[in-house]
Amino acid sequence: MDSKAFTMHFHYGFLLCVLCLTRAEHDELNVRRVMKELEVIPDVLKEPPKELLKLSFDNELEIEEGKVYTPTELKFPPKLEWNADPGTFYTIVMLSPDAPSRENPIYRSWLHWLVVNVPGLDVAKGQAISEYYGPLPPKDSGLCRYVVLVYQQAEKLDIEEKKMDLKNAEDHSNFDVERFTQKYDMNDPLAGNVFQSKWDDYVPELMKMLYDVSE
Q1: Hey, which bits of the chain come out as E strands?
Q2: 1-50 tens-digit pLDDT
Q3: Contact 145, 107 (CB under 8 A)
Q4: How many Cα atoms occupy the beta-carbon half-sphere of 106 within 13 Å?
Q5: How confident is the model at residue 215 (pLDDT cuts 50, 70, 90)?
């Protein structure tokens, strides 16, 4: 490679690095801003996550922080992406502070997903305390917020909590994520995202499957 080609290659690589850093900084600032605007802080967290957690659902649906999605679109667990270290263990939490509604959150927060001891990005190899189930907003609840968080663990955890039965509503209601993470010596969330959802005709189907009740 001659000196001119080397210089052009170097400048291109440097520009690419700058663009990547700028994009990461934008994502970090945006998720912090949206969490404050939607009052996830202070309703769920004292401090915002350090970076954006990327969520990809079926049909290549990528979650844009703060936007509205239907329960039908979010039936199955998403693919998660954050700046993970393959040699580190993480905890994944998804919850809704608006149970049964934002105006009357008597069950804050409702746990939708909890996986501990996730090695790097490999969520499937983690220890599921609560398997994933998607948004479940009641028909007249309006928009409900859903928060997905990643916490870094200091080591692999020996968890006291037993695996939850998805059909046991009591296990999932009034979940305090800060108390749980403090119990296991985790700091503020490493990565996170927030979106909103409202009732659609998949909710009665999920209610019937989980709790054998009809809306």
Answers
A1: 51-52, 54-57, 61-62, 68-69, 79-81, 89-96, 110-119, 127-130, 144-152, 191-197
A2: 555 554 555 445 444 443 444 556 666 788 999 999 999 999 999 999 99
A3: no
A4: 4
A5: low
| C-alpha triplet 205, 136, 143: angle, nearest 5° | 130
pTM of the model: 0.88
Strand pairing class (89-96; 191-197): unpaired
Closest Cα to residue 30, out of 52, 11, 58, 7? 52
- Whole-angstrom Cα distance, residue 34 to residue 53? 13
Q: Are 138 and 172 in contact (CB under 8 A)?
A: no
Would you call 4 helix, strand, or coil by DSSP? Answer: helix
> What token pair was written down for 184?
């296991």
φ, ψ at 198 (rounded to 5°): -140, 165
Instruction: Tell me whether residue 210 is exposed, middle or buried, using C-beta atoms within 10 angstroms of its C-beta: 0 to 12, 13 to 18, 19 or more.
Output: middle
DSSP secondary structure string, 90-141? Answer: EEEEEEES-SS-SS--TTPSEEEEEEEEEETT-GGGSEEEE--------TT-
